[in-house]
Structures are given as C-alpha cells and as structure tokens.
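wait is this the right file?? whatever heres the structure
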C-alpha cells in the first residue's frame, strides 16, 4: 500500500465522513454538483461539517498525488513521440518537488476549518494560523503543525526556484537528457548502437530507482507527521461540533 492511501483509515477522516452522511442525509444535492446550490440553507453544524470534510478530502487527495507522482516516473510510453524519455522524467520530478511543499498550504486550510476560525481562504498562511490564540491553546496541534512545516521547509527553496527562476539542474538528469537527444542514426555499427542503448537504459533505471527510493522515504516520513496531526485534530473537531451543533 502506498504511504498516503493509509490515511483512508485515519479515525478523523472516518468520523468526518460519517458525520457528513448523517448531516446531509435529507439534503438533495446533485452528486455532480461542485458547490452547494444557493437555494439550500445550511445550519451552522452542516456548514461546519461540510467545510471540514471539504478541506480534509482535498488534503488527502493532494497527498495521494505525491504517491502517484512516484509511479509516473517510470510509466513512459515509448510509442508516443511528442516528448522524449528525458522530458517525461524531468516533468514528473519537477511536478513532485513543486507539489510536496503545497501540502503545507492544504494543512493550513484544514486547520482553519477544524478550529472554525472562519479566516477567508485567500488570507490563510502559516503565520496567521499558528499565531491564532485558539490554535496556540492546543499545544499538541501547534507542535504537530510546526513539525510538518519544518519538514517541508527543506523543499521550499527548490520549489521557489522551479516556479520563479529555472528548471531543475541536476548533473545526472542532464546526462540522461543528453543521452536521449541521440537517436544513433549516424552510427552504422548495430553492436555499438546496442551497447550505447544499454548504457543509456542502465543509467536511466538506476537514476529512477534512486529517485523513487528518495521520494518514497520523504512520503513515508510525511505520512507519519500528517497521520499524527489528523489524530490530534479529531478531539478539536468533536469540541467544535458541540459548539456549533
């Protein structure tokens, strides 16, 4: 089982999903609707459960995409000629590195919802959430959030570079890129071509194996931190339910 799929069994998620089913059991909404129709008036309790559920599901979905990103490193379709093997690999590595730091943004939105802070999502950031007096009065949650932030900070600079400055610069990745620029049409000796392709393929396989190991370790550690936070958020969720209910 991939790391973040295990969040499906987290007690916090199971509780929120159960509450959502009960709270909206008599509310008729099109299953394909992307927002609640304006003519449906929600109670504060329904609003709260829906908001928490929304951000919780989207946080988990984002995390699962980090597992998927690892699988995509090696699913290149050689029958398609619109991108080279190197292009495909670079894209998916950069995709992972950009996405991982954004987990923190999802966590902040979730905490905003659970504590019922009602801060506009456009104004949610780390400083606003961790400095909020409600959050600070839950030291175990505050500590857990800071642990996640600290862990993800290692990837913040590379994400900033990829988004605002330039593509990933990696010596071994550059070597793969150069390898796959060559189609060997200028070499008549088939044995030489076969040897070159073997070296190219071997280098690619070793690089991908190393990257998968690296990213899987990151995901595994991040899963533990997020799973712990979710468990800590459940009692706060139960407290807030009583207040709004």
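ok assuming it is, sequence goes like this
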């Amino acid at each position: 089982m991939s790391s973040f799929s295990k969040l499906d069994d987290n007690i916090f998620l199971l509780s929120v999903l159960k509450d959502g089913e009960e709270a909206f059991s008599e509310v008729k909404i099109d299953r394909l609707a992307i927002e609640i129709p304006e003519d449906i008036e929600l109670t504060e309790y329904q609003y709260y459960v829906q908001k928490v559920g929304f951000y919780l599901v989207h946080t988990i979905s984002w995390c699962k995409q980090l597992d998927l990103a690892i699988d995509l490193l090696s699913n290149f379709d050689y029958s398609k000629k619109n991108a080279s093997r190197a292009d495909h690999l670079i894209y998916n590595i950069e995709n992972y590195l950009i996405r991982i730091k954004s987990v923190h943004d999802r966590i902040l939105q979730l905490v905003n919802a659970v504590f019922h802070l009602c801060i506009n999502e456009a104004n949610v950031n780390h400083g606003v959430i961790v400095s909020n007096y409600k959050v600070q009065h839950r030291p175990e949650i505050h500590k857990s959030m800071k642990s996640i932030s600290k862990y993800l900070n290692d990837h913040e600079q590379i994400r900033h570079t990829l988004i605002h400055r330039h593509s990933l610069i990696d010596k071994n990745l550059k070597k793969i890129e150069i390898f796959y620029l060559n189609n060997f049409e200028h070499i008549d000796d088939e044995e030489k071509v076969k040897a070159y392709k073997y070296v190219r393929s071997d280098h690619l396989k070793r690089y991908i194996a190393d990257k998968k190991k690296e990213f899987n370790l990151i995901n595994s550690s991040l899963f533990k931190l997020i799973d712990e936070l979710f468990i800590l958020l459940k009692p706060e969720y139960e407290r807030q339910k009583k207040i709004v209910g």
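The chain has a mean pLDDT of 88. so i think its the right one actually
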